[in-house]
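Posted in: Structural Biology > Protein-Ligand Complexes

Title: Requesting predicted complex, iron/sulfur cluster in pocket

I'd be grateful if someone could produce the 3D structure tokens for the following input. Sequence and ligand are given below.
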Amino acid sequence: MIAKERLVKIVGKHVSDDPAVLEEYSRDISFVHPIKPTYVVYPASMAEVKEIVKLANETQTPLVPVSSGPPHFRGDTVPGTGGAIIVNMSRMKKIINVDRPRRVAMVEPGVTFGELVAAATREGIRLNMPLLPRKTKTVVGSLLEREPVVMPKYQWDISDPVACLEVVFGNGEDFRTGQAAGPGTVEEQWAVGGVQKAPYGPGTASWHRLIQGSQGTIGIVTWASMRCELLPSLEEPFFVGGSELAPILDLTAWLIRLRMVNECFILNNVALAAICAQKWPKDYASLKQSLPPWVLFYNVAGYEYFPEERVKSYIKDITAINQRLGLDAVQALSTVSAIDFLRMVQKPCDDPYWKLRYKGAFEDVLFLTINDKIESQIAAMQEVATRAGYPTTDMGIYIQPIVQGTGLHCEFNLFYDPDDPVEKNCVKALADAAVKELLARGAFFSRPYGDNAALILNRDAATVNMLKRLKNIFDPKYIMNPGKVCF
Amino acid sequence: MGLEQYQGDMNMCCRCSCCKFIPMQKVMGPQFSYACPSIAKYNFHAYSGGGRLNIASAMLKNGFNYTDKLLHVVYNCQLCGACQVSCNYAMDMEVLEPITEFRFKCVEDGKTSPALDKAVARLRKTGSMLEASGRRGDWAKDLNLKDATKEKVDILYHAGCLSSYDKDAQKLAKTTAQVLQKAGVNFGILGDAEMCCGSRAYQMGYRDDFLKQAEKYMALIRKTGARTLVTGCADGYHAFKVLYDKFNFKKDLEVLHTSELFARLIKEGKLKPRRKVNLAVTYHDPCRLGRLGEPYIHWQGKKIPGDKFVFDPPKPYRRGTNGVYYPPRDVIKSLPGIKFTEMTRIMEYSWCCGAGGGVNESNPEFSIWAAKERVREAIATGAEAIVSTCPWCEQNFSTAIKEMNSSLKVYDIVELVARAI
Amino acid sequence: MAILSRDVYKEFEDVVGPENITDDPALMPSYFNTEHAAIVLPGSTKEVQALVKLCNKHKLRFRAICTGWTGMFPRGIVLFDLRRMNRIIEINEKNMYAVVEPYVISAELQAECMKRGLNFCIKGAGSNCTALLRGHGHMDQTTSGDDRNHLAIEWVTPEGEIVRTGSLGSSDEWFCGDGPGPSLRAILTSAVPPGVTPGVFTKAAIKLYHWPGPTKFPVVGHSPRYTLSHIPPNMMARYYSFPSVEKMWQAEIRIGEAEIAYELMGFNAAMVAANITTCNEEDEAMFKRLSREVQGPGFFIIIAGNSADDFAYKKKVLENIVAEAGGKSLKTVEDPEIEGILLCQCIRISASIRETFRPGGAFNSIPIMGQRDLTIKWAIGAGEAKKPLIEKGLIVDDGGAFFGWGVEHGHLGKTEIFCKYDPSNTEAKKAVEQWQKEQTARAFKERYFALTMGDQTEIGPALSNYHIWWQKTVKAIDPNSVTTESGPLV
Ligand code: SF4
Ligand code: SF4
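-- Reply #1 --
Done. Output follows.
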């Protein structure tokens, strides 16, 4: 174990071995086995991060990078082995740059969505956000997890909206990806009018792709830049409800293909009610009752030039598609108005986080899939849930089209009472069974979290073999978050 | 002269591979996108138009290194000219000329194909490309046609080797003569005196044999006093109209393909297709009537020094723009009851029937392979029959169809016209 | 002299069959004038795999090509010509991707896509090149470019393992190339082609995009003057010139932000002239004419509406933006015949053959991807630096022009600048090389960008030492060093 002084030498007083703090980092809301870290350090700069990583290499000490505040849900920030140090990035909170003309922003890892959304709005731009991140969620944390974003139209590549990253690799060397790599420092680039926007390179590789999705196993990111979109000058959001998913998926595919909508995703009545209910539990139950089983939400927007005309022409075209599919777009469903909902999803979630409101805990089963398969996968999930004794009427479903319509993120929210061991065990067993069943039905678990990661990665030995070779280059001593993904 | 004169053109090849395909805006999918039978079948880049230029250019520089594989490349090319058209959509350079010159060079150097040697030996001996059984004019025996060597005629009909000697193809000559009779055309034939035009010897690489043949034949033609020569053979058409012009034999002889003459006669009301020909057909452009059938333009000039490949006066390239595409189509479309559909590869970017370049003699399997590819394309249009305007095409398609057990029919355009009048 | 012993040759021959292998020196000139150990024509992933394993066994280096337009090849390698791997495996309309083998050319895939109202990024190398190519093209505004269009990839590694990335390896679906966990697309940005990642891409899925145009263009006429019988509905092509680069950029960025351009290509007049003419002589005359017509730098733009209203809206916005920037439409391009030719050239051909190779001279180019306003700033200087060469008559007079375009509605971009010259003029060649050296050095020194093609020991350290990471990566995936290092291929 590293002596505390050595860490103090790097970060001063910003190191903790307070048992209560360590306890807090030893577990999260997921079913991952708790392991206590030995310290939590709070570096304030890339230089300090580098020192920490070097020290960890010398002493073969596992490092677990964390940027978001609690509660954590996926087990990726719980140490996979004993003796780990949590590297808490929350002190690195600078919004480094927000550039309207180049539509780009750059932040340190401790910056939350709430903070960046406010800063970006002031400049007239916005982020392509995940759906209602919790208040404490950091932007960088979300970007690195490849979380789906709510405006698939602007997600050209699954790595979007990431632009460039600064990272300290597991071997202690620092690196900047994409345009940020050089020539020159970031400041020197700014001086000639450069920003850190182009994601590819340097060279042939697209290094950011290796860092995203790695759950902190490759290195520690010390800032990230991201592409931003313009703030619309006019927005008209709609709901389309229905009892059948197929026509709604069809409509969604066309809306995205024709790039007519910004925010666009599908929720089932459970998830929508959980997000929108004001008074618990009364409102929730009645809202859930009154909503159609499936709800598509989309937002038609106009920008600088003749926004009314643009919105009008899109709505006309969309109405034609709706009519063909026998669907109806409305501005309110039950007590939920589309415009209120839009304002809600353009910001992080108010406390408490919506997935915690119903029962205090949840487990997500999330994967990627395609239009051709999703319905049978949902049916299979419902079957597995029924078999496990979990009421399907309690299961939230969120379908987020990704990458301009080339795929779908599908997420089942299994709410449970953490203090009820029966319920908790039921959900754990259900989640495990669901992963197995869904894998068999072609679900792609691109973000393998927790205990099921091994099951998921076992299906693709060739990829794992190749990933391990890369891991050996960037983190040869395996100090970065060991036990996660396939490392 | 010879290959050397094309060194500049060959150096221009940027290896873009366009010559493998039909012009890009005509590509309608992965099916029927290839223009060159040779690369489509043999796959090595060497078999493409560009590959041939790369090799010829390198050998000019480094010496000729003949290997079996190289000769396989050289002789497995229909000299169909599709590469020239596709290349010349964007490039200003000769493609087919150097390919042809390379073959001449092989023959000059004694690097020949035995099968082609045999065919040319036959030509030298019998004056025909085909094994002669009987006399050349036998096909016309009962038709009571004018003998152009004895009577003055407006139009001289050249039947060609295949239509003269081949039992199946003779019907084309006969039918043509009958149609012309019905239209009241003042025409004659040369009968036993008719000669081989030399075109196929040229394609096979035997330029001197061609030149000899052309000189002899042209003297005879001139003696008849006919101002116009008509032929139903695309190879012959190309020889008389293009090659004889290129080598200064043609002078002011008007050369027409039967389809051109028919189109003219129909337009003038001298041929009246009245009877219904209930048939769904598609049309195959023979290379030497279509893209290679465009008029020859004599040009002399020189490259303007500088960074551009420009000439003074501007050099006319044979890009296939002015081939004979519409007369056969006009004739077909004038036939009552015909349902006409085009294939994917037509006109200047038509796919070769496989018989050209002597390939039907040197490598019948490849020749028929190419024909089968065309038959498949014809079938894909939903047609019951593929119509062509050259006996060599017809012969190749017939063989292909038989081997494929297909029910597709093959007709020469004259057969359909005869049915309609 | 054969490089391979007959026994080894036989082993390769057993994989592909005697008709699909050669080491005949007479055929080598058609493969870049290099003496290759053998040329092989694999027909399947399995065959590629077997060939790669043989290369490892015999410590032979290999490289694969598609149509093989360009490339540098060391002597003695086994060259895989992927000509026989030319199938479209799948076009998934609803999920907007296509899966192809390496020798499917873009023209083939595009034609199939258009039948379904879809399109994809046709790279600037042309629709005569493989659809799998990584790169930029005319339609980048709407179809993106660079490394951003690949989804799942089937990759035969330099050791002969088959890696199927993303959803393909886990669930046999092609829609995603990333994960589980970190994405192998990080390193799989360009195996064959264009050939920088060691190994061979044997199949890949690429993103498709909506195509608002006709299922096929109404092409009429004969080569080389193909025209359109009519301009397809809700579609328009124009060329606008502007009083200054700044004004042009202003219009370009606003067009990007308004999301109205189907294509925006910052061609200079010389490139427009080359594209719409059928031979060099005509090109020269047209260039003179267009040079008189333009008022300054400009771009070519296509707008296409999903409906009549959408088209009318886009057209109105375009006209506003152009007017605000003082832009002027080129009358020549308003002629529907020329407009049609350009629509076809830019959407279906996309090849630069007429503008680059037809003239017959050489050209040296500096291409830069990334932040468009920054690279324009640099390119103005690089264009100025061309002027003395033009005055001395060493290079073609194009007014010092450069070209470029926005990508993803202006989020990213590409800028490029050429010097065309007579390769036999050694003075010109030297001057152009000097210009190229100076201008890339200036870009590097002044922190605009760095071209990664130059001396790695100088460039690498200025770019986060990426070269060292890349060398380590190559070593890790190609431990026997059976792949060759060389530049990209198309
Ligand atoms: S011959 Fe013409 S089309 Fe063929 S590769 Fe050469 S330049 Fe391209
Ligand atoms: S002439 Fe025909 S067969 Fe010969 S290379 Fe050209 S296209 Fe191919």
